[in-house]
Amino acid sequence: MMRSVIYIILLVIFQSCASQSKPILIDSEMETNVKENLSYYLYYPEDYQDEPEKDFPILLFLHGGGESGDSLVTVKRNGPPKLIVQGKKFPFLILAPQNPNAKKWWNTRAVKQLLDSIVDTNRIDKKRIYITGLSRGGGAAWEMAVQYPNTFAAMAVVCGMAPLPYASWINRKMPIWVFHGEKDKSVPFSESENMVAKLKEMGYEVIFTRYPNVGHSAWIKAYETEALYDWFMNQELK
């Protein structure tokens, strides 16, 4: 009798399991809307107002993680904005946005929207849009070169993370200049070394400046390299 009861119970359990709904796969869609408030500095060269018929190049500068947040003045700590404060004059406009998220990656789609807006509302030569970035901003510069291969005429990256698969998606005609300190403990030197090797293997035009006794602050020497700005000015979108 007991065995019959147990058998009936097990039979009910198995039938219950068998009658349960099977997994299903549905297809649907949802429209998303992501907003980002970007504060920024915009530098105009001396002759911008004096030559109203001339279109000028523009350099997009993406700072590192240390300058992220809600205090725009911190963007002046490094790179071209720092040099502007010190009195250096550039022959092109410079757009320097601030990543408002201290612990997050750059929202590169938002940056591109800002860049497009600045280009559309100023006298910009669309064949001479340049990009540069340091550390976290350097990684974002690599990313933007992948996402928008037909936008930038040249790119300079300082100690930025460089995923090797990116090499297959960057505009092969865009000149690239990479800087990195060999003693970097924050972003390993190998990030740039391996990426440069891969790019050269694939036929890209790449300049690689390595600093033997420099750590993560390679941007100090990199952005004080006067030849860098002359190099930018000689590039045009191909």
From TrEMBL:
Keywords: Hydrolase, Signal. Signal peptide: none annotated. PROSITE patterns: PROKAR_LIPOPROTEIN. The keyword Signal applies. GO terms for molecular function: hydrolase activity. Residues 115-217 form the Dienelactone hydrolase domain. This is Dienelactone hydrolase family protein. It comes from Maribacter litoralis.
